[in-house]
Structures are given as C-alpha cells and as structure tokens.
Design goal:
This protein has 400 residues and is of the alpha+beta class. The chain is built from 11 helices and 6 strands. Strands 2-1-3-5-4-6 form a 6-stranded antiparallel beta sheet, with helices on one face.
C-alpha cells in the first residue's frame, strides 16, 4: 500500500527559518498574562523582574525633624507633603511620614505649652546663664554687674582669677558696677587709678545697694583695676565689687536698687541715704586741729538733712508708712536746726557745745519705723541695738 501524499497546499519549512513556536510576538501556552505581557523589552516586567520602589526623601526628613525637638514645625510640613507624593509615585515611607507628623505635633504642643506657661523661657534662661557663667569663670576682667563670684587665692589690688557662681550660693564677692577710665591717653599709674576707683566705686555701690542696713558689717568696697599690660591692649575698665573680708561668705544678693525694690522703698532710701553718707564723711582731724574742714562737714550734713525732709514731703505716703514718715519728718526738722547751729558755730568751743546734741537728735537708727513699714531692713547689720555697725576695712578697697 502506497503512502498517502501530503495535501497540495502544504509547504515544507523554508530553509533557515525556525519552526513555528512560542516567541516574543507569538505567545505560547505559558506566556505571561496581564498588562504589558509579551510586549517586548522595556514595556513589561522583563527578564529581571519589577524595579524596586524608592523611599520618599521628605518622609525621612519628617521623621528626623520630628525627633529633633527644635524643628517640630518643619517635620510636620515635610510629613504632610510626603504623604501625597508617596501615593502618586508608588513610593515607600508612609510609616516614616506618619511617625514624623505625630512626633512633630507632640513637639509643637509642648513648645506652645512651654511658651504660654513660661517654662520654656525659664529653661532657656537657666541654660544661657549656665553657659555664660562657664565661659566667664577665669578672669576678673570678664565680670559684669550683678555677678557673684569666688576668688581663687588672695584678693589682689590689680586682678585675680575668679569663678562666677549663682548669687543664691554663699560667695565672696558681688559686682556692683563698672566704669571706664577716660581722663588719660597714657598709663597714669596704679596709684592714680586707685584714687579714682575709690570714689567712683563708692558711688556705684551706694546706687547698687540702696538698703545699706542689709549689708553685713564685714563687707567692703573693692575694685579690680587695669594693669599696665592690659592698658596697652586697650583695657580701661574698673570693676567695682562688694567683698567679704575675713567673715562668713555673703548669702544671697546684696542688690537693692530699682530693679529689686518698689517705688516707695526707692523714694525713701534715696531721700535718707545721703544723710548717712554725709555723717560718715567726718574729717579725721577734730575742730581744734582743722576748724574749716569740720564746719564744712557739718554744713554738708545739715544740707542732707534738710533735703531729706523736702524729698519725703514731696511724696504722697499711704498705708502703714504714712504715720512713721510723719514722725520722721519732725525728727528731721529738729536735727536740721541743731546741725545748722553746729555748722555756724563761731569758734571751737561753740562747736563742741552743739556737737553732742546734733548727734543725739540725728540718732543712728533714725527712720527704723519707716523701714519696717516699707518692708526694708529695720536694723543695721551687725548691731543689736540699731546703732552703727562696728568694724573697719582691711586689705585693699574701702569700707561700705
């Protein structure tokens, strides 16, 4: 039986061409299915699979900003921008963005609460104060008004190493103020600067601590001076201080000026303090040895007493202070008469006749009742009876 010939329309495969089968444009039974399947390189998954998804950079920035407490608003903004970008670009990082938003929101809330309550401001002040003290704990040249400090070693007339401390802690010195030497172009010598510093630092201290009765009796005026070396470098600053001399450390700040006291307290102290300053400036030589100086001193005391009466009458005193101020004015009027007589004494004998009486009417605890009513120190430091404190300066500086 002869084999059946093939159909007439069937053609043998052409030489050089592969047999029909699955190919790039002729999917077989196992070809991929879905969008882009069998569409060629670059239009589908390809031989190496799907490209990896990237992480959104703003999501990372949001988390970092949320962790860093000083950048909470920035982290919140980054997170809110990152979320729609992640969805649009099919990226990762959604969890990072959400975490950044949450942390930033909490930080913002804490920041607002701190600003409203003042806690943030107090924390910042404490931090800044600590850094400031740390940066200035080496030289007396870096001291500023209101600084309290301890001295490394013995006090010296020119300079000394110091350590700035909190005034709440016991300390050896407290800066009352500074001033510049402007009279000289060339180094005038330590003695000349010392003379200037003695007077100016006393004035600065009187203005810094108006409540003089609160100053311990072993605290004195002291000052740090420029050296000849620092002068050549442009230093002209004298730093005035109160320092303790051989006694217990100073406890708390001695500052009592307009930044610490009320208007009535300041008005009273500025009126009566010049009397105390004038009285303590009595000449070393008595009237027999130097009558002109003593009469000039008595004139100065009389003027301060009269001016105190005028200043007190110019102010309206109310409340608990009204009655004691009225009594004080009567005492000041009587004292003014006696000190005027002392200043106008014809000779030394007449001077001595009025001397004791003048001090009797101008007693050492004059105005103590007013001080108590105003909430000021009502008894001189170091004195049990309200009289003047005893003691004297030792070492460098001048007494308070």
């Amino acid at each position: 039986m002869e084999p059946t010939p093939p159909p007439q329309d069937s053609q043998p495969p052409q030489q050089g061409w592969p047999a029909p089968g699955p190919g790039p444009y002729n999917p077989g039974p196992y070809a991929p299915y879905g969008p882009g399947a069998g569409l060629g390189p670059g239009l589908g998954p390809g031989p190496y699979g799907t490209p990896p998804r990237t992480t959104n950079g703003l999501a990372i920035a949001s988390l970092v900003s949320g962790v860093v407490c000083c950048l909470p608003p920035l982290g919140l903004v980054f997170g809110l921008i990152a979320l729609p970008q992640i969805r649009k670009k099919n990226q990762t990082g959604k969890g990072l963005a959400i975490a950044g938003i949450v942390l930033s929101s909490i930080s913002c809330l804490l920041l607002v609460v701190g600003l409203v309550t003042g806690g943030f401001g107090e924390a910042w002040k404490s931090f800044r104060k600590g850094m400031d003290e740390a940066s200035r704990s080496s030289s007396a040249f870096s001291l500023r008004t209101g600084d309290c400090y301890d001295v490394d070693g013995e006090l010296e007339a020119v300079t000394s190493d110091v350590e700035v401390v909190d005034c709440v802690k016991p300390h050896e010195g407290e800066v009352t103020g500074t001033f510049l030497i402007t009279l000289y172009d060339k180094w005038p010598g330590e003695d000349r600067i010392d003379d200037i510093a003695e007077d100016r630092c006393e004035e600065i201290g009187n203005a810094y601590a108006l409540d003089t009765w609160a100053i311990p009796d072993d605290v004195w005026t002291y000052y740090f001076l420029p050296t000849s070396q620092s002068w050549r470098a442009g230093d002209r600053t004298v730093t005035c201080s109160y320092v303790v001399d051989g006694g217990e450390p100073i406890k708390g700040s001695l500052r009592s000026d307009g930044s610490k006291l009320g208007a009535d307290q300041v008005r009273f102290l500025k009126a009566v303090n010049p009397i105390e300053i004038a009285v303590t400036a009595e000449p070393e030589e008595d009237v027999d040895a130097d009558p002109a100086a003593n009469k000039a001193w008595a004139t100065e005391v009389h003027a301060s007493v009269e001016q105190a009466g005028k200043d007190l009458r110019a102010h309206h005193w109310t409340g608990a202070s009204a009655a004691p101020v009225a009594e004080l004015l009567k005492e000041l009027d009587a004292a003014a008469k006696e000190w005027k007589a002392l200043a106008q004494a014809a000779d030394a004998d007449a001077y001595w006749e009025h001397y004791d009486t003048a001090f009797e009417v101008l007693r050492a605890d004059l105005g103590a009742d007013v001080r108590e009513a105003l909430g000021l120190t009502a008894q001189r430091s170091g004195s049990s009876d309200g009289g003047p404190a005893e003691g004297g300066p030792s070492g460098d500086g001048t007494s308070v």
